[in-house]
Amino acid sequence: MIGRRRSRGVDIWPGFVDALSGLVMVMVFMLLVFVLAQYFLGTALSGSEAARDRLSKEMAALVEQLSIEKKASEGLRADLARLNGQLAENSAERDKLSHDIAALEALKTELEAKLAEMGDALEGEKSTSMAARAEVALLNQQLETIRKEMARLAAALDASEKLAADQKVQIVDLGKRLNVALAGKVEELQRYRSEFFGKLREVLGNRPGIRVEGDRFVFQSEVLFDSGSAEMGIDGIEQIRALAKTLNDIAKQVPKDVPWVLRVDGHTDKRPIASGRFPSNWELSTARAITVIKTLIANGVPADRLAAAGFGEYQPLEKGDSDEALARNRRIEIRFDAR
């Protein structure tokens, strides 16, 4: 009987060794998978950095082009104002000369009539007739000079009007180009928003309780906070730190004149809460949003680029009373938006 018991004790040990060897092989396999995952993730992040640098250079070139075109537009407007002033002065001078010509024409007609009368009455007085003819010749010479000056002014007016029309066309074309450039700037901001959410997905991964819905990145409250609390746990702080790092990377690419803001909205379910610190769900949802804001500021996000809001239970995603519906309504929403 004693021999049998000793035999059974010896038979258990090889099985234990085999199980331990299998466990070691599994751990080695998991370590290999982790190393490969780190390598591919590093490769993807380096490609993203290169794309971000390219976008930064393109944005700088666009801003410089906008500045040059703005200066050109201001110069064209100044030239147009100066030409309009000259055009008004030339028009006034032309009107004055036209009046003078009309007066001279009337005087010429009057003199010719007098000469005709004098020719009938004083045929023999050649000296008087010659003087009158000389006066008429002088008047004709003056009229010819005035006509030439009128022709010169008319040509100058035509040239000024043509130049003004050309510059108006240039200003209209410049306005169209500026509108296209501004539209491109808005499109760039949309790309930054898409890049922000894309990088956030890469950093946070497909974790339970974190999802993207439209233009919002949604954290279930349980991922960041304990029930009925606005104090963030260690895991929640790490995830908000990852969010802050991604936001700071994207913010470096966005021009300073683009009025973007990251909005944090707190939501609860419809179950009432009553405590000394949180008399209602309004206070709880607002306190949680402010906690996220403070964590982002502590990790380098500028305070003037952040906004917090609490909605309590009044913006539910689902109307039901099931545990799943209530859990879905308890959430923190992150929006990358214009101010």
UniProtKB/TrEMBL annotation:
It holds the Pfam family OmpA. InterPro entries: Bact_OuterMem_StrucFunc, OmpA-like, OmpA-like_sf. Residues 213-339 form the OmpA-like domain. Keywords: Coiled coil, Membrane, Transmembrane, Transmembrane helix. Residues 45-163 form a coiled coil. The keyword Zinc does not apply. CDD domains: OmpA_C-like. One of its GO terms (cellular component) is membrane. The chain crosses the membrane at residues 12-41. This is Peptidoglycan-binding protein. The lineage of its organism: Bacteria, Pseudomonadati, Pseudomonadota, Alphaproteobacteria, Rhodospirillales.
